[in-house]
Amino acid sequence: MQNPFRSEAEAFNLVMLLVGYFAAIVLAKVLLGNVAAVIVFVVVSLLALVWLMRGKPERPPQTASARRGAEDEKRILVIANETVGGEPLREMIRDKSEGFREDVLVVCPALNSPIRHWASDDDKARDAARDRLSRSLDRLESLGISARGEVGDGEPLQAIEDALRTFGPDEIIISTHPPGRSHWLEKGVVREARARFTVPITHVVVDLEAEREDVR
Predict the structure, then answer these.
(1) Burial category of 79 from C-beta neighbours within 10 Å (exposed 0-12, middle 13-18, buried 19 and up)
(2) In the CATH scheme, what is the code of domain 73-215?
(3) What is the pLDDT of residues 66-89, one digit of tens each?
């Protein structure tokens, strides 16, 4: 499960601010009555709102890959949900590994609903991701691409960051559905990944519906 805070210190500071916020309201009520408590509540809430609106969100520092492969080896990290079997992705993997011994890791994020995510109920999401991953690896194997896989964090960016530490890729391929049907594109996953990670990133659009039409 992804931590919504960038650090333990950030989480601690937020907890302390909330404690002080409610303590100020309770203290005003006890010492000065309900009217004073309401005034303190309004004033503190307005100050907190102004502080939040003026604060500029910090972009996480760029993360590099800890390369682990040999000189003649190309390590390719593929982040995909349902589109691993698409022809554009298969061709991109072949292009990126041409002239090298390929080592391909496919990561399927365990996509989950926000409510289940916050409730730490990830079992169903991970089971579904394992099933998608198994079918994806079988499709790649049938096309002569040897790959291994793992289930990643439900947030694609966190799944990439985890793989950078454990796999050390030379290239990252993010595979999505076309615009209008891709939740990842709507969330700006590709754009944020390029800003956040120093490893070369290629975005591949896979239109599975069009490919099925072509087959028919």
Answers:
(1) buried
(2) 3.40.50.620
(3) 666 677 889 999 998 776 667 788
